[in-house]
Amino acid sequence: MTPPSNFNDPLCVQVGEFFGPDSSLSNALDNFRPRSGQAKMALAIAQALKKGGGLVVEAGTGTGKTFAYLIPVLLSGQRALISTASKTLQDQLFARDLPQLIETLGLPVRIALLKGRGNYLCLHRLKMARHESSAGQPINSRALGRIELWSKSTRTGDLAEMPGLDERSPLLPLITSTRENCLGNQCDHHRACHVNLARREAMAADVVVINHHLFFADLAVRESGMAELLPTVDTVIFDEAHQINEVGIQFLGNVFSSSQCLDFCRDLLACGLQQARGLVDWVDCVGQLERCLRDLRLVLSRTSGKGNGIRLRWVGDTPETTDSAKWLQGLESLASAFVTITDAISAVTELSPDFVRLHERSISLGQRVKDFMAPPSDESVRWLDINGSHLRLVESPLDIAKIMQSRLLKVDEAGAGTTWIFTSATLGDDPELRWFTEPCGLAQADVLRVDSPFDYRHQAALYVPSDLPEPSSQQHATALAHRIAQWSSVIGGRTLVLTTSLRALHVIGEVLQQHFLQTGMLQVLVQGQLPKRELMARFRDPNASTGSILVATASFWEGFDVPGDSLQLVVIDKLPFPPPNDPLVEARSNRLRQGGRSPFNDYFLPEAAVALKQGAGRLIRKEDDRGILVVADVRLLSKSYGKRLFGALPAMRRIESEKEMQLALTGLTTASTTI
After folding, report:
1. pLDDT band at 297, cuts 50/70/90?
2. Is the pTM of this model over 0.90?
3. Quick count: other Cβ atoms within 10 Å of Cβ 97?
């Protein structure tokens, strides 16, 4: 459904003037260039702000979608939430884009940044961590001291502002709070709480920048503070909207994990020994619960061994290939251990608010165990994740369509309601964008597609090697790695390798590192060997003495931007189809099959097309970028569905042979403006 036109509306007129060639934006912003697609998107959003309802916009890379939605919202005067998928974009909107536009437009707009609890320093838990360190617990006292020093100067408490703090630091769960362990207004630090300060500022702001995880976490639990924002905004904008379905189902389902249990045990032991030593045998209580967890894991030992990343189907009462009696007995013992601990904590709840929260957590965790002893819901899918000694029991809805329609996309008695804007560079491979709109319950929303302004035929080329082993072959990753070594040597690195599996990541990374170990000609960076932030910084470093190859998977397929000559070759190892044996994928496929539809055509192909577009989008980020995309999967040439996947990619020039590939790579080392 195409959004209606009403260009005579005062807001539309004003928006149109701002996106013209002689607008104040052209004079005030050095990086602003008029783009017809950007203007078209901005006008559609202006119209949506006037009429309410939903608008879905797929805006190709380079459209300038951020300004296209920010300017209409700021000019409208409406109160808005802007939700993003990544903290990077969240920080960019708050620290750069919004202040820049507010100053340019000359508007008295108040803005606020709001993240989840885990991003803010908790003063109470920092104090507890210091007590644990003093009591001889294994805590890095030097790192803790740096955090304590920083805590005295920070105003926001946002841990992203602290230099040198690794996002993988084991200290983070010790110095941040969760909904389960936060003491609320019973905390001694309630008035100075950084989370509360951020929420107060958000309540007073005109535009609040949040993220998808926070949005759906709040929707699931209606947590106090944030919950008050949703009914009072006129507009909600989801940037990077392609992620909201997968993020949403994480929070709208039910999860019980050994990590939750171990965090609870750690907090209970610390609090018990600090505040109620001798009143309860806390070591024994925690030990019983930990033994029950180990026993439950042992039930699975014959099935899964010591494997990592294993996912077991769970259709009936127990996960597949599991001894039903022993599994249910293990859950019963775990539930019983929580009852014992709950009774023990209830005897000391009057001593401290910490024990009140621990009591509530114990009840909640015990109830989750009991939930997984009952049969799963008819409209959900259940599975078990095993990662080493850790277990994760999950029951999830198949999508967020019902929750979106019943709780969000509503209108009042007068027919008015909130305006919902959903935008991303990749939302599907068909005109109606059904890959996105169906699972998100947006069948009635207006849909707009805006093409990228980049000249892909001159800026980029696409190569599908026809002489590599079959993608299913064990030799595929090794053969591809040797070919990548040849290609990247020609251009001095500047290569991003995106894999569809951890196995391919490790094989390709190891082969490349061994290849360049002797010469030191290129630096090979492999995801998992360094923190993500450091990997990105090293790859982007313009002063590096050697070029770089980055081998990555998962999160690097999107949101990793390297404009300019630092990235000129993107290699995708295989077509990114969903894993067919994944329980969630199976359940979605079965639902389509029961509805008389084709799982392959209506699910697997659109999923692969969107992921392929995301990966290809890493290559060209500016009007003067040049580069080559390699999709090392011969199925793109040999299978009938290849044409559909080709259609999802930008219209790049095709490279037909290895000889032509070598010429194109050499061309990247010249001053030519085309490939």
Report:
1. very high
2. yes
3. 16
Q: 231-278 pLDDT, tens per residue?
A: 689 999 999 999 999 999 998 889 999 999 999 999 999 999 999 999
One-letter amino acid of 282: W
Q: Is 207 in a helix, a strand, or coil?
A: strand
For residue 365 the two structure tokens come to: 């965790």
First-to-last C-alpha distance (Å) of the chain = 37
CA dist., res. 497 & res. 553, Å (int): 8
Beta bridge pairs of residue 550: 496, 525
Nearest Cα to 550, choosing from 564, 568, 563? Answer: 568
- The DSSP annotation for 300-339 comes to THHHHTT-SSEEEE--SSS-TTS-HHHHHHHHHHHHHHHH
pLDDT tens for residues 527-582?
999 988 899 999 999 888 889 999 999 889 998 999 999 999 999 999 999 999 99
Q: Amino acid letter at 25?
A: L
pLDDT in tens, 179-229: 888 998 889 999 999 999 999 999 999 999 999 999 998 887 764 445 556
Q: In what order do the strands lie in the sheet with 547-552?
A: 522-526, 547-552, 495-498, 569-572, 627-631, 460-463, 653-655
Coil, strand, or helix at residue 452? coil
How far is CA 15 from its chain centroid? 31
Q: Are strands 380-387 and 310-313 parallel, antiparallel or unpaired?
A: antiparallel
Q: Where are the beta strands (DSSP E) in 235-279?
A: 235-238, 254-257
